[in-house]
Amino acid sequence: MKYYSIGEFANKIGKTVQTLRNWDKNGSLKPHHITEGGTRYYSQEQLNHFLGLKSKTKLNKKTIGYCRVSSHKQKDDLERQIENVKTYMYAKGYQFEIISDIGSGINYNKKGLNQLIDMITNLEVDKIVVLYKDRLIRFGYELIENICEKYGTTIEIIDNTEKTEEQELVEDLIQIVTVFSC
């Protein structure tokens, strides 16, 4: 089992070290164990439990609209995508921010995507809204979905029409050829 020092645990749950000390003192949240030297350690199980409670309360979490296109040639498409996502979120009454990227769906090292993942793991995101599932990431969507689930973030897909296997295969092959031809 993984254990976190009081500072690491405080950072992961968005609280201060002093708050955790106060919670220990008043019995609200006791550390898993305390070393002979007095260092408090919290378990992964405690973190998961806390995150589960926090995800239900949704305190100070944001809704993020994420938009992506594959190349600079598609900048107009990106602007339309952003407008569609904004219109949808305004209609739903969401308070939101937009994060956008220009880059391949199979390139995981995009500034916006990395910013989004950092925000998720720092418990800052309640919901991600994307126009299409593959706008978030083309391969490995389930991995992103799993990370979101662990940190109490949901993914809302505006146009969730299922593509045929042939359509997906053709799009994936085009994406791969595009990446390797650059």
What are the main properties of this structure?
single chain; alpha/beta; 4-stranded parallel sheet; DNA strand exchange activity; Multidrug-efflux Transporter Regulator, Chain: A, Domain 2; Rossmann fold; 19% strand; IS607 family transposase; 182 residues; 3-stranded antiparallel sheet
Describe, in plain words, how this protein is organized in 3D:
51% of the residues lie in helices and 19% in strands. With 182 residues, it is an alpha/beta fold. The chain folds into two domains: 55 residues, Multidrug-efflux Transporter Regulator, Chain: A, Domain 2; 109 residues, Rossmann fold (3-Layer(aba) Sandwich), CATH 3.40.50.1390. The strands form two sheets. It has a four-stranded parallel sheet, with helices on both faces. Strands 1-3-2 form a three-stranded antiparallel sheet. Helix 4 links the parallel strand 4 and strand 5. Helix 1 packs across helix 2. The model has no long low-confidence stretch (mean pLDDT 86). Keywords: DNA integration, DNA recombination, DNA-binding. GO terms for molecular function: DNA binding; DNA strand exchange activity. This is IS607 family transposase.
How would you sum up this structure in a few lines?
This protein has 182 residues and is of the alpha/beta class.
